[in-house]
Amino acid sequence: GDKLTMNEETVDDALRAMDLLRTIPEIDAKRIFVLGHSQGGYMMPRIAKRATGLAGAIIFAGNTRSLPDLMEAQIPYLASLQPETEASRQQVESTLKQVAKMRTVQAGDPPVMGMPAAYLLDLKGYDPAALMKSTTVPLLILQGERDYQVTLKDFEGWKTALQGRANATFKTYPALNHLFDSGEGKPSPAEYQKPGHVDAQVIADIAVWINKSR
Fold first, then answer.
1. Where are the beta strands (DSSP E) in the chain?
2. Helix axis angle, 86-104 to 67-80, nearest 10°
3. Of 173, 190, 170, 193, residue with least CA distance to 182
4. 199 flagged as catalytic
């Protein structure tokens, strides 16, 4: 509805899942980890702030930049993968105008690019890296270097904010894209059409980190 925010979309579900896990006898309630990919990683600081007894958080390609910032980088990049025409140039221009509206939206305004005003206003001034800095939860932050959606710029955002934090581990993977699947050459959405798997090395790294976080 019109009041939807990323909390209802992402954060609340993760917290409810943790509550549910704690009721299952086979689960060690003190060893619950949460992994968030993309938007889940972007919202991980909110999850970590509200969670009780979170053993650790894993961020997969979580952006530290705002949605408009991401889109302003991504839209021209995607356009550059196709031959430029007058129509495509106009399309980019009009889409970027829509993105700019995300920054100036006010309560009661119509949705922008399908996102209600309340949804966008909730994210105004949200700085995930700064919020994560105010938590003490152990962190594993992973990033594919071939990701054109959330990039090394975002990864650097986490690193800069959490510099010197003993319980934060950072790793990038040269061959991996936004889905943590491997590829080569210039990344493009076409890769997402091919069946693939999260890289085995990533899974191994997560398992090692979880076992160390005791």
1. 33-37, 56-60, 139-144, 168-173
2. 180
3. 173
4. no
Q: Is 178 marked active-site? A: yes
Catalytic one of 37, 66, 147, 199: 147
Any catalytic annotation for residue 38?
Answer: yes
- Of 38, 154, 181, 199, the catalytic one is 38
Catalytic-role residue among 37, 66, 154, 178: 178
- The pTM is what? 0.94
Find out whether 126 and 69 touch, Cβ atoms under 8 Å.
Answer: no
Q: 60-111, pLDDT tens digit by residue?
A: 999 999 999 999 999 999 999 999 899 999 999 999 999 999 999 999 999 9
Tokens encoding 81:
């993968």
CB atoms within 10 A of CB 143: 25
